[in-house]
Write a structure and sequence with these properties.
33 strands; 496 residues; mainly beta; 42% strand; six-stranded mixed beta sheet
């Protein structure tokens, strides 16, 4: 959304079509979007207009080498600049108030930049505004007056610092840099800085900082591990968290200090996956809804919901889409493994189907029961797709996330066996073949499982899994290696 929620920008990739950036004019009531630009690359991220809505900024990967290039597009003419050098990547964060400059982190590696730049939006000239040794840098939000930039100093996945850079003199004030504490999603709300941090043990909560009060926790309407938030200057707060096994996103309005009222979103179902706020609008938000089927983009305004785009172009009947079942499955030591089963409608006890157990990467990623075209395709091909969140997965507390540290290829592999055994007892699967697949760390898990337990599965697929820990370690930047050492429990160079 733009600042006053008069326009919503979206990226759309049509079935067997090209990727394009579109804009909806919300106040005109037009049902069809205006097509703005079709970028010549994949992996589109971070689409954002400047305050004047003259330019769009986004990054994409033109060569497939994970080096995302910054693109600046003139909305009226479609002309664009690519200021990122060929051998580097840019991760942008914000336009200056007048749109003349965009701030970005520039580096050589997908784990972040080594310096923060101010890039001219007309001439592509770049100047360094901050650099540091021994850490990666990201930038986030810019203050309303354009004088202060929020930056993140990335030590490793468990240690991320938050600073506020004065763009006039280059001085930086570190708002939070504590060992073992992560800061996520910092943003300005007026003159206050809001962000997520796990300062209070296992869970992430919402924190704020301002010059008068310093650092303090924000009282929230839910007592959960907060996965994401958005807050605007008009008192709205969108919170994302997990209610048991289900991801939840809700909208609240500030009633007073530490007091919030739930905001109804209209007639849409409960499966709201994302809420997007405009910086300076209290009455209109964008919502993304999906319940295992393709997503629907809507506008919610004063309790009424208006559909903008239903991405289901299949014209298939309701039962054509596989639907989720979610379970806590006990592993060998009693640890409960959060697991989702994607079950085709045609699976019955009379016609049981083979299972495909798909292992996520990371290892600190997780799988939620959300729409995925690839998984739906597997289900329609005749598989019960099993999505386990083995120990080491994020989203279920820090203690669960750290359970695999020093034990790669150990208990989390036995979690996979327990999930496969549970699923194999279901009437929809009994006596049918068992398959396992995964990518990245999930691919490592596949290789580890079939080597240690060669009779547990009938077939396996590894997509770019880690097969040689030593070579993988040597390919990492120095600042990321300590995180892998903590995960492995040893240094691969010293203990090959």
């Amino acid at each position: 959304l733009n600042q006053y929620a008069t326009h919503v920008y979206a990226t759309i990739e049509s079935w067997q079509g090209s990727l394009e950036i579109v804009r909806y004019a919300l106040e005109s009531g037009a049902a069809a979007p205006e097509s703005l630009f079709a970028p010549p690359c994949a992996g589109l991220k971070t689409v954002a207009p400047d305050r004047q809505e003259k330019r769009l900024a986004f990054t994409c990967d033109p060569l497939g080498d994970e080096r995302h290039k910054l693109h600046l597009v003139d909305i009226d003419t479609g002309a664009y600049l690519v200021p990122t050098p060929r051998d580097q990547l840019d991760l942008p964060c914000a336009f200056s108030p007048d749109g003349a400059v965009i701030y970005a982190a520039r580096g050589h590696h997908i784990w972040g930049g080594t310096r923060i730049l101010a890039i001219s939006t007309s001439a592509s000239e770049a100047r360094t505004v901050f650099a540091t040794d021994g850490a990666r840098l990201f930038c986030h939000d810019l203050s309303e007056d354009g004088r202060s930039l929020l930056i993140e100093r990335y030590i490793d996945n468990g240690d991320r610092h938050l600073g506020m850079l004065d763009l006039r003199d280059g001085a930086i004030a570190w708002l939070l840099r504590e060992p073992g504490v992560q800061v996520k999603q910092p943003q300005f709300v007026g003159e206050t800085v809001s962000f997520l941090a796990n300062r209070s043990g296992d869970r992430f909560g919402l924190w704020s900082w301002d010059r008068a009060s310093g650092l303090r926790p924000v009282a929230l309407p839910v007592n959960e591990d907060i996965a994401g938030f958005q807050q605007n200057d008009r008192g709205l707060l969108a919170l994302s968290y997990r209610n048991g096994l289900q991801p939840v996103t809700e909208l609240y309005r500030r009633r007073g200090e530490g007091a919030w009222d739930a905001v109804p979103l209209g007639a849409e179902p409960k499966e709201v996956r994302a809420i997007v706020l405009a910086k300076k609008c209290a009455e209109r938000v964008a919502i993304l809804v999906e319940d295992g089927r393709p997503a629907r983009l809507s506008i919610s305004e004063r309790g009424q919901t208006r559909l903008l785009l239903d991405t289901d172009e299949t014209r298939l009947p309701e039962g054509a889409f596989a639907r989720y079942q979610s379970h806590w499955i006990k592993s060998f030591d009693g640890t409960e493994i959060p697991t989702h089963l994607l079950i085709p409608a045609f699976a019955t006890a009379e016609r049981p189907l083979p299972m495909l157990l798909w292992v996520h990467g990371g290892p600190e990623e997780h799988q939620d029961p959300i729409y995925c075209s690839g998984l739906q395709r597997l289900a329609s091909a005749g598989f019960v797709v099993v999505l386990p969140n083995v120990r080491g997965s994020s989203g279920f507390g820090r203690a669960f996330q750290d359970m695999d540290n020093g034990d790669w290829g150990g208990a989390h592999i036995r979690d996979l066996l327990a999930v496969a055994a549970f699923t194999a007892r279901l009437a929809l699967v009994v006596d049918r073949p068992r398959f396992i697949g995964g990518d990245s760390f999930g691919g490592f898990s596949v290789l580890s499982a079939i080597i240690q337990y060669p009779t547990a599965f009938d077939g396996a697929v590894d997509l770019f899994g880690i097969s040689d820990i030593g070579s993988f370690y040597r390919g990492l930047p120095d600042t990321v290696r300590p995180q892998l050492i903590r995960e492995l429990g040893f240094d691969p160079l010293q203990h090959p």
